[in-house]
Amino acid sequence: MEDQINTKEQVESEGRTESAEPERKDRKWRKKWLTNGKALLVYWLVFAISLLYWELLVKGVTGGFSGGGSFFFLCFIPAEALFLSMLVGWFPERANRFLTPVVLGVVSVYYIIQVGYHKAFGSLFSVSLLGMGNAAMTDFGWTMKTIVKDTLGACLLILIPVAVLFLLGILRRIPCRRYSVLSHLCIPVLAVILWFMGVGILRLGGAGRGSAYDAYSNSLSDTDTTANKLGASTTTILEINSYFFGIGGGKSRDTLSQGVRDALTVSESGDWNIMLGGKEEPDASLVTGTKEDSTEESATPSEEVSTVPERRIFEEIDFATLKRLSDDAVIQNLCDYFSTIEGSSTNEYTGLMEGYNLIYICAESFWTYAINEVATPTLYKMANGGIVLDNYYNSFKNTTTNGEFAFLTSLWPDVSRDAMMGKDVGSFPQSASKYMPYGLGNITEALGYKTYGYHNFKGSYYRREDSLANLGLECKFMGSGMSFTTSWPSSDLEMMEQSVDDYIHEDRFITYYMTFSGHGPYNNDNAICSKNYDRAVELTQGMGLNDQAICYLACNMELDKAMEYLLMRLEEAGKLENTLIVIAGDHYPYYVSGKTRKSLAGHTVDTDFEMYKSSCILYNAGIREPLHSDTYCCNVDILPTVLNLLDIPYDSRLIAGKDIFAEGLHKAVLYNKSFLTDTVKYNALTGEREWLIDVSGYTEEQKDAYIEAISERIGLEYAASLNMMDCDFYRFVWENSGLIPETE
Q1: Radius of gyration over alpha carbons of the chain, in Å?
Q2: Rounded CA separation 679/288 (Å)
């Protein structure tokens, strides 16, 4: 009996043991995952808090809180922090206490680079510029002293999370435990889920033009615009995905084909009625795009040249036929697009300077406030004589090759996130391998012009030795036909003195200069500034300018000397009155600080629009009274304006710019797709619009349609420019239209 009882108790005990085993395993499993979860949570919090701190800091340092800056970067910090957490927690706690701050330190270096790059170039770093790293360090290395000095405080602030984590690790106040390999392997999946949850939040916030989601999904969005909406780290991730893996790229082609399907809503003939919802009798000022209170009369040319307007197109080009000749979808879309463009026509200014020589100058960091009656008197005389563009805007805030490309070709450069994927840095260097019939040399070859190009720096930089030659120019550069007493920056006057004799005695010539003396930083470490500084201080006494403003003028005094020498030589040769001199900047002088802008302008300069308002000189000594134009225009509009003045044939449909004297829609467009017309000032970052005329007679829907129509047009012009370079469209059109000369 006792044996039976013992046996029964044993069975019951064994049963309880067996049933408890799964429970113990379950508790052990839960404890293990709870331990892993706690360890992972600590790492995630460290990286999330650090990323949040850095993004806010970079926004503050780079001005990201102004101009439509948003906090949508918060949507992606959870995913980014989780991904970084995968890099740590592999080792015992002692090793992790060392590894975690190291990983955090590496990430902090990324933000330090962004701050330093923004200080040096006025923009956040784009992945597409990786190929320029060696050249930048070699040629901009001398500026590092200034950059380090100016960004030291911000860099120390960036390092605070790293220092705090090291300290907490040493004091053992923060656990840095190991967590399982399986947990590490699960993190990428969770990070992707969190990332797309962030994308979903963006969509909930709005998916229209200018929204954070638009910046995320549209590969045409530039680095600064994307970072303004989504933060620096998210922007870099998007650019890496597009640049190296092709993820999220190619939107330029989609935009172009979609725009063609939707049809062009902005008429070249100025049919604003279409854009404003078909109002039967629109206000006259809105139709013409003029201000009601404008009292200034438009300038008239000194003589009547053209009578009956003629479309500036090549009749040989038939886009319907060309489309049938190609199976390439990009070429077909371009043919569809250009078939919708009416093109501009000749006007009363056509041929005003027919047969004149042309000196075409892209001036480094040239801005309105480089023109000073006392310090730069020659530039002042030229800017206030000839043809004066009262509403000229420089589209770009940095990167010489972008503004130079737009100025020389009347096409928009690629500033998108997949810009120059796997190619040269910049649309201009890329153009060296494309057929460019509208190059200054190529377009005037048949007219008997001799064509020349000069730059007072190395021809290899941005591959100008190839791209300028491809435009039909016979070129000289530093170390290749010219030598200089300083190397960075070098003297514009010395360049002029070594080049004028090459062409001054030609019957007809076209000469291009890319100047260099105006390059920053603007301090006495700058060779040109140091050369002219004492004289600049003397001339600007009593103007209340700060030291950087004086240094900026000192650099531009060298350009002024070059222009004084050029005018003197032209006059001596009897060529001054039959030569048109054009001067425009490549970009805003990004080394100039906000305080210096205020010092030069005498007031706080608006960074959304006013900062980009600049001067483009169209000087001819034969024009006795200045001809003022209040047309809104920008870099891409200068080439067609000059071609019209010289009456050089071109097809106005195949460029992005427009002759400023032509009828129809005119606009000044900034790199971020903000724009100004006679009717409105539209900020693409914020969606804000300032109407320049009375629009009280229109509904909000009609005004929105107006903004959307012009924004769509700008997007199409950008997309077309990018795709034209991508598929060598000019070559296709010229070869299949019988326009390539037999000599080529």
Answers
A1: 31
A2: 9
Q: 191, 79 in Cβ contact below 8 A?
A: yes
Question: 469, 475 in Cβ contact below 8 A?
Answer: yes
pLDDT tens digits for 614-650? 999 999 999 989 999 999 999 999 999 999 999 999 9
Query: Going by C-beta distance under 8 Å and a sequence separation of 6 or more, which residues neighbour residue 543?
Result: none
Nearest to 445 by CA among 482, 422, 472, 477: 472
DSSP letter string over 544-588?
---HHHHHHHHHHHHHHHHHHHHHHHHHHTT-STTEEEEEEESS-
The whole-angstrom separation of Cα 476 and Cα 463 is: 13
Phi, psi of 511 (to 5 degrees): -130, 135
Q: How far is C-alpha 598 from the chain's CA centre?
A: 24
Global model pTM greater than 0.70: yes
3-state secondary structure of 704: helix
pLDDT digits (tens, 9 = 90+) for 518-538: 999 999 999 999 999 999 999
Contact present, 392 and 674 (Cβ < 8 Å): no
Longest dimension (CA), the chain: 136
CA 340/CA 162 separation, integer angstroms: 57
What's the rounded Cα separation, in Å, for the pair 465 and 214? 38
Q: What CA–CA distance (Å, rounded) separates 402 from 394?
A: 11
- The 10s digit of each residue's pLDDT in 463-490 is 899 999 999 999 999 999 999 999 889 9
Contact 214, 255 (CB under 8 A): no
In the predicted model, what is the mean pLDDT of residues 153-174? 90
Q: Would you report the helix, strand and coil content of the chain in percent, each value rounded to 5?
A: 55, 10, 40
CA-nearest of 268, 299, 233 to 78 is: 233
Q: Using one digit for the tens of pLDDT, what is the confidence trace for 646-678?
A: 999 999 999 999 999 999 999 999 999 999 999
- In terms of Cβ atoms closer than 10 Å to its own Cβ (0-12, 13-18, 19+), residue 20 is exposed
